[in-house]
Amino acid sequence: RKEVEQDPGPFNVPEGATVAFNCTYSNSASQSFFWYRQDCRKEPKLLMSVYSSGNEDGRFTAQLNRASQYISLLIRDSKLSDSATYLCVVNMNRDDKIIFGKGTRLHILP
Amino acid sequence: NAGVTQTPKFQVLKTGQSMTLQCAQDMNHNSMYWYRQDPGMGLRLIYYSASEGTTDKGEVPNGYNVSRLNKREFSLRLESAAPSQTSVYFCASSTGAMNTEAFFGQGTRLTVV
To answer: In angstroms, rounded to a whole number, what is the distance separating the alpha carbons of residues A25 and A3?
Structure first.
C-alpha cells in the first residue's frame, strides 16, 4: 500500500460549486499534514496545513481523521482560478520524511 | 529573498552521461529533499537529508546519489543517466519542526536521450 493515496481525478466542477477531496495515509505515526497546490507543473506551493481540530481559510476547509487515517479538503464557491492539482502531503516527523500523494486534478468549468 | 534555488533549469543529457543537480537554500533550514515528478505519478521522494551530514533514501533512490555539502546545499548526482530518468526534479527544504511547510525550488527539467 502506498504511503499516501489520493483519487487522481480529474474532477470537473461548475464554477460556484462545492468540491471535496480525500486522502488516506498508511503510517499511523505521521504527525504533520498539508495540502499543496500545483499549477501547470510549476513548483508546489502550500495551500494550508491540516490540524487535528480542523481548520478553515476562507473558502477552504481541511479536516484530519486520525482514527481512519485520512485528511480532506473542501472548497466552497469554487472559482475558475481554483483549477489546479491538489497534493496531499504527509510528514512522518520522526525522521522528517515528507511524502506526497499523486495529486488530484481539479477543473473548474465556467 | 531567494528561498530555494536550483540549477540548471533545463538540461539534456545523452544516455550514460553524468551530471549533478545543484540546490541551495538561504532560509537556514535543517531538512532538504529531492523529488522527481513524472506525468500521473505525483512527486516521488528520491533522497532527503534531515540535517547536515545525514542523508536517507526515499521512495525511488536507485540511480541517484546525494551530498549534503553543508547546511545550505544538497546536490543530486546521476552517475550514468538513463532515459527513465527523464523527469522534472524539485528540490525542497523545511525547518524540520512539526507542522512547518516545505519550500520548493522552481524545478529542473531533465531529458535523457
So the answer is: 5
pLDDT tens readout for residues A28-42: 888 899 999 999 879
- Residue B87: closest CA among chain A residues belongs to which residue? A41
Give the whole-angstrom CA distance, residue A102 versus residue B10.
Answer: 23
pLDDT at position A1: 66
What residue type is assigned to position A37 of the chain?
A: R
Cell of A38: 500545483
What residues does A7 pair with on adjacent strands? none
Query: What is the C-alpha to C-alpha distance for residues A94 and B13, in angstroms, rounded to an integer?
Result: 37
Alpha-carbon gap, residue A107 to A12, rounded angstroms = 5
| C-beta of residue B30 within 8 angstroms of C-beta of residue B24 | no
Contact of A23 with chain B, judged by CB distance below 8 Å, is answered with no
Question: What separation in angstroms does the CA of A78 have from each of A23, A35, A58, A63, B69?
Answer: 20, 16, 11, 18, 44
Q: Is the dihedral of CA B50, A103, A16, A63 positive or negative?
A: negative
Do A73 and A54 contact (CB within 8 A), yes or no?
no
Residues 6+ apart with CB under 8 A from B83: B15, B112, B113
**A44 contacts in B (CB within 8 Å)?**
43, 90, 104
